[in-house]
Specification:
- The chain has one domain: Porin (Beta Barrel).
- 5% of the residues lie in helices and 63% in strands.
- The chain is built from 1 helix and 14 strands; from the N terminus they run H-E-E-E-E-E-E-E-E-E-E-E-E-E-E.
- A 12-stranded antiparallel beta barrel has the order 1-2-3-6-7-8-9-10-11-12-13-14.
Length: 268
């Protein structure tokens, strides 16, 4: 791998940042105040990128970029309408020809407030602050994850019926304010869930990030569009296991990721 191509891979890591990994989001949609009030979901991701997208959206070869991430999502409903959110993360990043990086990633702290609901679904506003974890100023793979971020999100959930089976659609749109040199971001995420059996949940997710123009310094404008397909199987009354695949369908100045993930869902 040439030094020029390796440097371009680093730039992609700067611009794309961590992919929007949303499979760990709550997907119960339950509005019953007598239901479980909390949940903890642990999700482990592995992804690899040997290709990326240039500023014209063309696929190019880059230095191999390998990432392992662990997300822990904890949610607790203090009232039927107000849910507190705590989501730390840990990651390990390896770039061919560069330094490895391991340690605490972003930790999200926030809340979600349902301002409208009926028997079929709800609308909610969500706000969170994203606190950066351990970083090294000399480690390029960590650039883009060293400053605080603030996420303002609108979320809608609606139950669906597929004959005698059930499902749901979950739509989210957010604007993320990023401190420092990176540009702010628009996020648009859509999840379609289908339950062929009460103990089985199948999900297809479209996760999209678009920069609000370019930032300062090395931060050019970028976009990336990921898809995740997964299944969740209930193994006990309050425990479920998840397994899925993910990949990047397109983008500009971004990584082309392919990966796997698995998770454990616990409600209480």
């Amino acid at each position: 791998m040439t030094g020029k191509t390796c440097a371009f891979a680093f730039a992609l890591a700067f611009l794309a940042g961590p992919a929007p990994l949303m499979a760990q989001e709550s997907m119960s949609g339950d509005v019953d105040p007598q239901a479980d009030r909390g949940q903890v979901i642990a999700t482990l991701y592995y992804s690899n990128s040997s290709k990326g997208y240039d500023r014209d959206g063309n696929t190019i070869d880059i230095a191999d970029y390998e990432k392992v991430e662990l997300f822990l999502l904890a949610e607790y409903a203090v009232t039927p309408d107000l849910t507190l959110i705590f989501k730390p993360s840990f990651r390990s990043v390896t770039v061919q020809g560069g330094d490895d990086d391991r340690g605490l990633g972003y930790t999200d702290i926030g809340g979600r407030y349902r301002f409208a609901e009926n028997q079929d679904g709800w609308l909610a506003a969500e706000a969170s602050v994203r606190i950066p974890g351990v970083s090294r100023d000399d480690n390029l793979a960590q650039v883009g994850s060293t400053d605080a971020e603030y996420d303002l999100r609108l979320r809608g959930f609606h139950n669906l019926a597929f004959g005698s089976d059930s499902g749901f659609i979950d739509a989210q749109a957010s604007y993320r304010l990023r401190a420092g040199d990176p540009p702010n971001e628009f996020h648009a995420d859509l999840t379609l869930g289908y339950r062929p059996d009460p103990d089985i949940l199948l999900m297809a997710q479209s996760l999209n990030t678009i920069s609000d123009g370019a930032g300062r310094g090395i931060f050019d404008e970028y976009r990336y569009h990921n898809i995740q397909l997964s299944g969740v199987y209930t193994v006990a009354p309050a425990v479920a296991l998840q397994f899925g695949v993910m990949g990047t369908l397109g983008g500009e100045n971004a990584l082309c990721e392919r990966g796997l993930f698995g998770g454990v869902w616990v409600s209480f």
